[in-house]
Amino acid sequence: MRWLLIVAGSVAAVLMALPAFADAILRPAVVVTGDQVLLGDLFDGIGDKAKTPVAHAPAPGRRALVDADWLHHVAVMNGLDWKSDDPFLQIVIERAGVTIPRERVEQEIVSALQAQGVSSEAQVDIVNRDLQMVVPANQPATIAVKDLTYDENAHSFTAMIEAPAGAPEPVRLSVAGTVHDVVDIPTLAHPMGHGEVISARDLTFVHMRADKVRRDVIRDADQIIGLTPRNTMRTGQTLALSDLERPQAVARNALVTVVLKQGAMTLSIEARANEAGAVGDIIKVTNTRSNQVIPTRVEGPNLVSVGIGVAPASGVAMAN
User: Does pTM top 0.85 for this prediction?
Assistant: First the structure.
């Protein structure tokens, strides 16, 4: 047990000559905030002796296990009449601490890298697997990034992290990692199925590392708006052009209105669609009166037209 007793032997001899405190009561659990363990942290009912330092505290967030012999030794050296009836007694001494999250360290590194031209939206990947910084509970959980170096070609960095920032004896940790560009990717804000037309309100943007985005993923929301999923898609799903299609305006075998515009004159007939189509598609329909097949352009839901560029075949009558 590598515990350093602060009280020297000569001082202990003097203390042993003092009257013993018969009312010393061992505390069942010990949590300290400072860098020393005081006698009052271990025993209750000892009056002014409570402020006597007896050992160095564990590191913040760490624990130490002490046994009955060690406790009895401390009691005797400080004039306490205490001894455990249980030779196997053990208690835990814990140093209170605040753990600084890994994400917090990453944010501070990104902020420091901005001075070297790195975007505030960038992400860093710290290679240290066991990245754990714990500061004393009685000190601020602040971070300082020191000795930062950045290789723009390799997108890599090294730095020294200190916490608390500006403390005389901070916790120090050397870190290294890589920097990644981040892009905003449009994704679905809620589930959508085939036939539902995607609007701007159906989209939300997520930050993604550029190197994690597939090449076929759509990055421009304008390429998505107005289309419909080929299949049901979940919330937050990224989209590729192969996932989408133009919404069907005319279903196969549906009754449609065929409109012919020539100057100021407009004629219309009823027909049945021989095939399905989206707006802008050229599809064939059959006149329900004459059974003649007419090539038409889809203009909207169950609406097609015959006009310039989609002239009816020779001899096709538009009249009912």
Answer: no
